[in-house]
Amino acid sequence: ETGVTQSPTHLIKTRGQQVTLRCSSQSGHNTVSWYQQALGQGPQFIFQYYREEENGRGNFPPRFSGLQFPNYSSELNVNALELDDSALYLCASSSSTGGPYEQYFGPGTRLTVT
Amino acid sequence: GNSVTQMEGPVTLSEEAFLTINCTYTATGYPSLFWYVQYPGEGLQLLLKATKADDKGSNKGFEATYRKETTSFHLEKGSVQVSDSAVYFCALSNNYGQNFVFGPGTRLSVLP
After folding, report:
1. Nearest by CB to A42, which of B32, B96, B105?
2. Which end is more exposed in chain A, N or C (fewer Cβ atoms within 10 Å of the end residue's Cβ)?
């Protein structure tokens, strides 16, 4: 069984640029959630995708957007990067069948905005 | 809105000591409760979970009991090891798996 994978591992961008992060969900999982984890803090929920539709969103501005593909992989796009966007971005997958829908996390993408 | 509060760290213990990390929550309805662990340089791993009041989750010697009357889900281990050194996160979600809310994390260091 393949776990959750994310790419790239690390990324350095300049303020104002745009970035795309990618996530492949665990085999059999149809739901993907994205989180932002600032240094020394807990993950903050960005949004969740189920069957290619956004299925819940946290308190993040519209410049954070996402996609889910038919194979359940997902992208997180961030436009107009700000210095405060520097963080570890975590992707988690889960299954909509059964419960309690515990999430399985990837290793994350470390984004640095300069 | 939903929220999770954890005891502040860092927590430093000697090997074989007893561990308690406090977690309390505020939520509407009947959330599911989780403990996740994050080892240095890695993503989060599910440690244990509980879905209803009085449920006890357990794994790798760690335990936590869902206490609805005190809205708590404290993590305990009877004898910690150096390999338990990590950051521990308490979390909750509604029973559709949406909107996971994490606490700020508690860093545990176990000394030999």
Report:
1. B105
2. N
